[in-house]
Design goal:
heterodimer, A: mainly alpha, 0% strand, flat, B: mainly alpha, 79% helix
């Protein structure tokens, strides 16, 4: 019984994480011809996935897990805004954006004590 | 350069897994089996916030759709007339943003008979690095002072935001990004069930509608 209970998170991982994700890769093999980057379906799919990712970002900032919840909401918002601004200013560099955002968050939290 | 961002992202995944109360083995296995940081973060944050497995599966499935066109365009580059489908399973599984971007950049210089092996090698390198990131992130979150743990957890939203913005080259993608940032919090604050899934569908379809409208007006 105990070993079954221990397996439960792994079954959830396979059912809710692996299968719903992997099915698209396998479908990709099946339809390896006929779809191109600019087809309308692909444009819509990409827009939905992009909006979903944006939703994930917003959710982690607004309802953060564990240690990030100790940082004040205003500072979390400021850090992500500064990181995004740095990304835009530094010729769309992902690394510059991440470093700037992290610097603001950590320095800000340290100053706030 | 790309592997730096990849490892940073997976440090965040490992740290998230730790702070949401998952085991290290679970976190590593999710990197191996899911191998898509967005899907893993959706899974972690949905299950960690008490969503049912079905709700989590729907949100993961919705985020995974974007893998389909990526796999299709990668396979078009590495396939030859006689290639067996089972030889494409591994490159398809290894397809993730990091591997896909670098494959599409490097493959044109590789002779076609060697491209499957090349993609597998590249993808394996990335996935091994990602396991290292997951492992280190998990232990750092357990042992670092609170201040740095917060910084580690912040890696995920920060790197997702800028790398998604970087991949959004068309106006429709940028609009979808902006709409998702607005719609997501609205739905979450109102306590709507399946909020991530609806954020994707509403934000993405809204952006797509504007895209069609503009095309029609042109």
């Amino acid at each position: 019984m105990n070993s079954l209970a221990g397996l439960a998170p792994y079954l959830v991982l396979i059912a809710a994480g692996f299968l719903p994700n992997e099915v698209w890769r396998m479908l990709g093999i099946l339809v390896a011809h006929g779809l191109d980057e600019s087809s309308e379906l692909v444009v819509w799919v990409r827009a939905v996935a992009t909006a979903l990712l944006a939703g994930v970002v917003a959710k982690i900032i607004l309802f953060p897990p564990g240690g990030l919840a100790d940082v004040h909401l205003a500072l979390r918002l400021l850090a992500i805004a500064v990181g995004f601004a740095a990304f835009l200013l530094m010729r769309r560099s992902v690394l510059a954006g991440v470093l700037a955002g992290e610097a603001v968050l950590i320095l800000g939290a340290w100053l706030a004590g | 350069m790309f592997s730096l961002v990849l490892i940073g992202t997976y440090l965040g995944v490992g740290a998230l897994a730790h702070d949401y109360g998952f085991s290290l083995w679970w976190a590593l296995l999710s990197t191996l089996l899911v191998w898509a940081a967005p899907a893993q973060v959706i899974l972690l944050s949905a299950l960690g916030a008490g969503a049912t497995p079905l709700e989590a599966a729907l949100a993961v499935a919705l985020s995974g759709v974007r893998l389909l066109p990526m796999v299709v365009s990668l396979l078009a580059l590495i396939k030859r007339p006689g290639t067996r489908a089972r030889d494409l399973v591994l490159p398809a599984h290894l397809t993730a943003v990091s591997m896909w971007v670098e494959s599409l950049r490097l493959l044109p210089t590789v002779p076609r008979p060697q491209r499957i092996a090349f993609s597998n090698g590249l993808g394996t390198g990335f996935i091994v690095a990602a396991h290292g990131g997951t492992l280190i992130g998990f232990y750092l979150a357990a042992s670092l002072p609170a201040l740095l743990t917060a910084g580690l957890l912040f890696l995920t939203p920060m790197s997702f935001l800028v790398s998604t913005a970087r991949n959004s080259k068309l106006p429709v993608d940028r609009l979808a990004l902006g709409l998702g940032l607005v719609v997501g919090p609205l739905l979450a604050y109102r306590g709507v069930g399946l909020d991530l899934m609806w954020t994707g569908i509403i934000g993405g379809s809204g952006a797509y509608g504007v895209h069609r409208l503009r095309a029609a007006l042109r």
